[in-house]
Amino acid sequence: MTCPVDLTDNAVRHNPPEGVESWVRLWTGVEGGQPVLRIADTGPVIPPDQVTGLFQPSRRLGAERVHGRDGLGLGLAIVAAVTVAHCGRVEAWPRAEGGPERAGHAPEVRTDSCAAGRHGTPYDLIRPLPTDRQGVGSRDDRSTQRPLSGHGRGRHAARVSVIRKTSPLSRRSLLRALGGGAALGALAGCGVPAAYVSPGDRAGADLSARDKRLTWANWPLYIDTDDNDTTKRPTLEAFEKRTGISVDYIEEINDNDEFFGKISPSLMNHQGTGRDLIVISDWMCARFVRLGWVQEMDRAKQPNVTKYLDPLLRSPAFDPGRKSSVPWQSGITGIAYNHRKVGREIKHVSDLWADDLKGRVTLLSGLDEAFALLMQGNGVDITQWTADDFHRVCDQVEKHVHSGQIRRFTGNDYIKDLSSGDVLACQAYSGDVIQLQADDPDIRFVVPEEGAELWAESLMIPNLARHKANAEKLIDYYYEPEVAAELAAWVNYVCPVPAAQDVLASSKDEDTAALAEDPLIFPDATMRRRLAIARDITSTERTEFAKRWNAIAGL
């Protein structure tokens, strides 16, 4: 619902103040196979040549347009980012008597809606309409007498709602007016590069040689800190001291989709993000690579990455040869269980469906996190799985939901359920289980005999980064085995630098040396043979698959 909510909220914010008769008109329907939402409202006259600026981040086009001062000026920029990334289209045009009219087009309901060749910048997709379109959408309902777009396609099942504003409007009242016609909803899309940036437009002027700094965005608690002072980061401070490069380290990434929404308006508008280095999950990395939003790295300047990167992680399907990404940390999605309470070993995915575990099993809620392990339980090679493999998994999970076998679907909160004993077995991440085992040695993690998914969260350099060479130098620094070992000893995820194992093993500290033997940090040969990186969900598959999975998981 993000786009309809933001469009309507924007209409309310920029209406005349209370005491002045004003209104917002909402129209929903289908045009040429596309769900469409159109919104018109009263307000000051907007010059036609300034309409495109409404979709720029933090652009208000003058104080007279701002009803409230509590917004950040990102509403329409977010609408544009989400819609374009999902192959939709946003249009806006000024009304002669004041106020803009906006139209959001969801992706076309057809399999080729995002076929090759459909691309362009937001300036192609977000544009003022021709002059003969201006003035439509006024109170006399002339808008219902013409096609919504300039392509002459008819509309079907149109709904028009007019809300007269004699008292403050809320998002809730606007959504109530939309009612069932808001099928535009999530703008379910295909993630195809509607805002694709060609290779020649990705690099900016690199200031690294004269400006010894860089900005790095990462997840919280994902780097080593000093035991006595958590504001100090030993490996990062050592890099700064050695190179003279100052690092502005920002722990701002809490969710892949949220972060995508934060920086995508800049990237799709060919603007810098203010960040030289980011860390996101590989399934999201795939989206950035497809959109052309990240730069290829110069491996000639990264000898450690070339030499030490784990062979299992070297060439994922979304980024062959890891030209645009380098794993920061890695991990395994497998099964965690309480061995004492279960009373036996779990060796297969099918063991989750045993009768004595009914109602005591959880699965991960995220589509990208959950599907691969379940496919492997069916003997599928996840490097080349098919749609039939996916739907077979969904059929199985749906059956276990209806039977009560699956207690619920979770994020990382499965940790609490497993610790309390409410859950006996669950899909889990290897890094979490290491922490659980420190408190409860009965908790075990297993890579099923059919295999498990190996994944990574990777470093990428976004387009127009101003300190690309500095970022490349920092990435290579963390691939020195000694540095990688120090980091691995703190974060406890699968280390992407196998050579760090010998460094830890040689430690004089007994606990540190023991980490070298932990297969959840350095998988042994048997475990490595069972690990695979899943083919990512393609742009054309995502809409259908997400819809089905989310319905099962209750999302």
What does this structure look like?
By secondary structure, the protein is an alpha/beta fold. The protein contains 19 helices and 15 strands. The protein has helices at 2-13, 75-85, 122-125, 171-178, 234-243, 256-268, 282-291, 303-308, 339-342, 367-377, 387-403, 414-420, 430-439, 468-477, 481-491, 500-505, 510-515, 525-530, 539-553, and strands at 22-31, 34-41, 89-94, 100-105, 155-165, 213-218, 246-251, 277-281, 326-338, 361-364, 406-410, 425-429, 443-446, 452-460, 531-532. The strands form 2 sheets. Strands 6, 7, 8, 9, 10, 11, 12, 13, 14 and 15 form a 10-stranded mixed beta sheet that branches. The chain has a 5-stranded antiparallel beta sheet with strand order 3-4-2-1-5, with helices on one face. The longest helix has 17 residues, at 387-403. The two termini are 13 Å apart. It comes from Streptomyces albiflavescens.
